[in-house]
Amino acid sequence: MSRKIRLAMIGTGWMGHVHSEAYRRLGPLGLLPQAEVELALVVGRRESTARELQSRYGYTRWSTDWREAVEDPSIDAVDISFPNALHHDIAIACARAGKAALCEKPLGLNASESEEMYRVAEECKVLHMTAFNYRWVPALIFARSLIESGELGRLYHFKGVFCQDFAADPDVPFTWRFGADSAGAGSIATLGSHLLDLARWLVGDVASLASLTETFVEDRPVEAGSASRQPVSVDDTTCLVMRFKNGAVGTAQTTWVARGRRCQLELEIHGSRGSLIFDVQRMNELQLCEEGPIEKRGFKTLYIGQHHPYGQVFGLKTGMNLGWRDSFVLQACEFLKAVVEGTRPRPSYYDGWQADRIVEQAVAAARKRAWVDL
Amino acid sequence: MSRKIRLAMIGTGWMGHVHSEAYRRLGPLGLLPQAEVELALVVGRRESTARELQSRYGYTRWSTDWREAVEDPSIDAVDISFPNALHHDIAIACARAGKAALCEKPLGLNASESEEMYRVAEECKVLHMTAFNYRWVPALIFARSLIESGELGRLYHFKGVFCQDFAADPDVPFTWRFGADSAGAGSIATLGSHLLDLARWLVGDVASLASLTETFVEDRPVEAGSASRQPVSVDDTTCLVMRFKNGAVGTAQTTWVARGRRCQLELEIHGSRGSLIFDVQRMNELQLCEEGPIEKRGFKTLYIGQHHPYGQVFGLKTGMNLGWRDSFVLQACEFLKAVVEGTRPRPSYYDGWQADRIVEQAVAAARKRAWVDL
Amino acid sequence: MSRKIRLAMIGTGWMGHVHSEAYRRLGPLGLLPQAEVELALVVGRRESTARELQSRYGYTRWSTDWREAVEDPSIDAVDISFPNALHHDIAIACARAGKAALCEKPLGLNASESEEMYRVAEECKVLHMTAFNYRWVPALIFARSLIESGELGRLYHFKGVFCQDFAADPDVPFTWRFGADSAGAGSIATLGSHLLDLARWLVGDVASLASLTETFVEDRPVEAGSASRQPVSVDDTTCLVMRFKNGAVGTAQTTWVARGRRCQLELEIHGSRGSLIFDVQRMNELQLCEEGPIEKRGFKTLYIGQHHPYGQVFGLKTGMNLGWRDSFVLQACEFLKAVVEGTRPRPSYYDGWQADRIVEQAVAAARKRAWVDL
Amino acid sequence: MSRKIRLAMIGTGWMGHVHSEAYRRLGPLGLLPQAEVELALVVGRRESTARELQSRYGYTRWSTDWREAVEDPSIDAVDISFPNALHHDIAIACARAGKAALCEKPLGLNASESEEMYRVAEECKVLHMTAFNYRWVPALIFARSLIESGELGRLYHFKGVFCQDFAADPDVPFTWRFGADSAGAGSIATLGSHLLDLARWLVGDVASLASLTETFVEDRPVEAGSASRQPVSVDDTTCLVMRFKNGAVGTAQTTWVARGRRCQLELEIHGSRGSLIFDVQRMNELQLCEEGPIEKRGFKTLYIGQHHPYGQVFGLKTGMNLGWRDSFVLQACEFLKAVVEGTRPRPSYYDGWQADRIVEQAVAAARKRAWVDL
Hints:
The structure is a homotetramer of 374-residue chains. By secondary structure, chain A is an alpha/beta fold. Chain A is built from 11 helices and 17 strands. In chain A, a hairpin with a 3-residue loop joins strand 13 (263-271) and strand 14. The longest helix of chain A is centred in the C-terminal third of the chain and has 20 residues, at 349-368. Chain A is globular and about 60 Å long. Chain A starts with a strand and ends with a strand. The mean pLDDT of chain A is 97. Chains A and C meet through strand 7, strand 8, strand 11 and strand 12 of A and strand 7, strand 8, strand 11 and strand 12 of C. Strand 16 (299-303) of chain B pairs antiparallel with strand 16 of chain C, so a sheet runs across the interface.
């Protein structure tokens, strides 16, 4: 007897589309056989986009008012990908209404919003999850299992970068991402929240950090081709050094002006017994250095596939590639599975809050030009 | 006014699943807006599997008799992934019934079957396509566009390998792939038909070849763990040298016993002006060497994404990965788009036939220990 | 008419050997045709090692007193590779005696020693050079020429690591490198002085930094196999963030406990127009990202050879490898060429002093847990 | 009591220089302590070049008549790098005169010359060696030791390429390399003899082969910038498939018109238990795939250094690079060590003959368009 889950999607942007397609793939991929998922409601800020998602993904109905999702007693689960400024109010309303929710990252506009979202969800005893989709990349899940099982020994170093170049051209127009009012911070928020969540997940909680932020492209055209330019008020680049609570140390860098680095989310972790390297541009690979005779010490390139976590889901042979969208399918599956099974999934709002805290403290540490403790 | 297309799937194995999911993703991905696709019928050899695909992918009905797909006048298009031995009869029946069809590779059990499939489809003026899914990998489509536009100049060399290691362990049990009766040939058929189709597509028709085949693992357990072993009667490995009609030359190797080569479908092409390298294990990358000053001559690693063919379909930023399954979505889309628009898509049965011919001649050349002309 | 240069070598350790062989290769390689080099004197602390170098490299005579090199009026140039603690006194004596000198890195035991070495050498108007051999790697010289000519545009980021794993095993015995008294600092001194010199050379002077240091292996056997262990009093690892005076920013890491990283001296530099990557483990390669159409943006792997700086010296075709020892030949050549021509070569003691200052401030910043200005 | 060896060098070209420098480095590197090497005589075809080598490398005397080396009873060993057309006569004269000799590759102008050189040297019981310098690359020596010790199991496949691009530009002028009269064959001789020697050394003797040769650039300027062009009468490219006597199979390709492949001498060998990959452009690396759990199967990148063959000779730490010239030092050392110790070194003239045979049969097989047995 499969249980029926009614899902409401609040959001019609990029992530609204990507998440919606992911839910649609669960059944055809044979995932979540214990439930029947109804895409019950999609909420957009404009009727036109809400209708577009309804027709494309088969939502039962649409609305322009997110409260409808909260107030409808038949809705079991909510997926929140509205603009960041609205995450807080929607998530808290969902919690108070007893709805399970998956919220896009960054969780809140700032860490105090995120903390409140976490605390209210806990008080209300609802299921809550933050959409750090990279936690669902099988290569990283395998990496974490190696760490958990002690194959790397005591962790020493983390080196992480999230370097892109989409904004390297100074004539890339101004958007909300480049304004402090609209985005809070720059590369450290957009890219850094992913990176620092992975640092926490793989290595552990951050104890303290020092950082610097810099804006290399000081203004941008108000729109493509315009001669009128608007000042950029967030960081293009953030660099930080940090100590983890377990004694590991590390560096991190985020930037969107690194020419040639298209989407380099690269992590390197050294421990007393071994090391690993991962780059999301080659998301089906993991480089692993294990113990062994010194003349054979080196990094091995593993293609992640049928013998690794989630290896059977997509019916691929090792060496065939999973795609970035596939990570959202696994995320969608784990969210709804937790709803069905009543478990408490990770990454939760707690994780979203912690990532927001580190980002916030990275910005503060740069501003204060001092180490900060977390 | 969107046209309705009714599709019948004949096949419930691995490819039946993968193709079915691909059709299901067309709508959600906003592809093929000019048509409404009905998954009208799924045909399996056993009721249980047919029913399973029906329920998973939402086929309107199921059958265990493939003739039902052919005889039902409401069916517009047929997808054929039944065992290779049945491709010929089904494809010819489809053609005679006026159905458009996409048939899995290898097209026929041998080149004369394939040729007949092609000739009948042409006579019947039906749309026909062979499911060489790697032709739908955007990195390769980009590669071909570079070749077509002359950026590599006159083509000199092709070097292609399709090396896997799934059969490297001699205790991998005997399956139909290891028997000449059931599979015709070994790695050169299973892996080589993909490789040689890409050689033809990217470089051109093959004029002549010499080859060798070898079986390193001479027998295999009749089933996992069994002490009883059955002789392997097909090649583990085939190596060939060839001349193309346009004057280019090259080598190719297929094998499934190459330890560490998990799914290396790697191509390298040199021309008078430039070169390129591709490996399906890193299907989102292309290495390109262009003309330019000698001190800066080298291969550049391109991450294929939003600025390349089909770059907008999956909503990815450059550096985020497409997956192997995504190539099937593009194949499904192009098949049905051709049905709607009445065009003649490639790769057609002609291409399937040619690949089968080269495979067959590679086996023959090895047996005869002589060069063969195609 | 070629001038005769009489060289004294003060040092019989690893670098004494490597430098000596480099001088011996100048003539056979056709370098420095304008001079005849006499290896006039080798000074060791023990007679046995001094005699060994004399006989191996053909020094005219040997001594156990370094003052002999200083006081002999026939000596033109001195190569100083005695233990670090003696660099200062020897270099100053050389300067006061009017001798040109090449001194191993780190220049002084601390920055104030290095500064004095620099100031005295300047006062005495003698030629002085610091043996940062990586500045003589052709790939890096080519990298610098690209930066100098503006091909990378305005510099944004430097990311540098010097990661080794020779001390990863906690049973690697205690040596002078692991004691603060003997070595001053740990990986940041031994490895960091190279790394930070390259940062200065390629990017520019450092304005400020924050850092952390950590000792993961807290004690080591007093000798191989011993159960008795001695505390390690220097860093295994140092991580830092820094600002350059020209506005660029960056991170750096040094460590000798990074399993699998055998000798990774890797630099990455992004500028407004392009980027480059270098790793000394592949010292004949440079990865370069130039401007160009967005669909072809990526890093190109260049093999450094006959078309690059010093490309003709070793008679190699591009793609054949220079070795690490070859960089010492170029260093030896440039040192003696400056002696002959009366020029002021770089890297000078000034550069050695600056590297020592950054190392010292990196240690201080970690201790104070604060940003420091340089 | 060290024995004195008097060496005569016959050759003043590229290899004359490279070999000469190698002999000069033996003493300084502490190699061959059991002998004192006198560079006794250098022979050039012109007085000027002979004198140049004399002065650069310190030869005792010079001559323009190679018979002087043969006839001088005080000469112990001869190094032959005169033009290929003279190898045969010189080598045979040396043998008859009882001189040990190291001869450059290709050994003879054709296999029958090589065979005679081998047979005469054997009859005369002199030491004979062919200068396949790549056999002295430590990474390859390590590779061979892995194969010898059975770590790869039974050998299945060899894939070798030697691809360069120095002749890719059709305006590269005509030289002796491009004429059949002067060079015998093209890329298959110049590049192929190295490649096929390595194939024999690592895998075993070749039993049979089929091949094709092609000339893409049909004529070249008689000299740089000239409008007058001369026909090219040798192959730019050769491709072959082959069977080894031990049952392994493989492919090989040589070319000098492969844009972007600067000096790619890349070998890949798969066996029943493991695999390895080597490229001379990264001559300090070996990629190795060993047995182990399937989820960790992959190629490991090893940096070859202090823990590998000849690891202590150059005083490098692992990860620091040996250079191409260093391989000649090891070759020179092993040649003279065999002279001192009276051993029979490999690669001998036998190996040179066998490489010439395979090259010759590769050309013949292409001409006959048939398989040939060796």
